[in-house]
Amino acid sequence: MRLLDLAARARSAMAALPVAMAGLAALGGCAEPLVSMGGGPREYVPSDYAQVLKRWTRNQSIIELTELDNTLTVTATYESWDFRWAYVVRYAADYRLTVEQRRELLDRTLRETSDDHEFYVALYGTNWRWIDLGRPTSAWIVRLIDDQGNETAPSKIESIVKPSAIDEHYFPYTTTWRRVFRIRFPPSTGDGRPTIAATARWFGLRFAGAEGNGELRWQLANNEGLTPVDQR
Q1: Which of 123, 151, 159, 161 has the lowest tally of Cβ within 10 angstroms?
Q2: Rounded CA gap, 159 and 183, in Å?
Q3: Which domain, by its residues, includes 161?
Q4: CA angle 92, 106, 189 (to 5 degrees)
């Protein structure tokens, strides 16, 4: 019986291999949308939120093909000026905020973009303890990187132990099978240099450890002359 079970598992693994390879090809072959770090007003309506969320969200899987084992899957949203504007518009509509309440929320959340580079991150891994980024026993470290060689450690990793209904609604990739974090990075180094260079063509998150490594990247557009409509 054991030999039959092993044979069945082997056939199942071989059958899954083309699917896994196709998934990797799809991850590598899909062009990510360009994003802009520029500020300024936006003219979003609540229904725009899903598209803006998609524009600012990236996904990466690190897969050990010899075991067909998904070691780590990361989905992350960068909470940029642009994203926050769309989020507040949607949130204000959902919760029927007054004009003044919406203005106060928008002002507060946009000011926060100057304090940190903030990411909402959901992780799935084969070992639940190893993907707890907030613990020194985690199998993974995360860094903010760009194409100019900057690499920055988080200033804060906040574990969201029990994601709220709001988390699950506005970040729908949040599930009970994933660990969820808010990860913040300083906007500048101790000597005043920006952690994402003004000349950067892309920035991203790097996850690295003994099990492998992978990067999520946000390709930057030339901001000159672009508007929110141009970037959709």
Answers
A1: 161
A2: 9
A3: 33-219
A4: 140
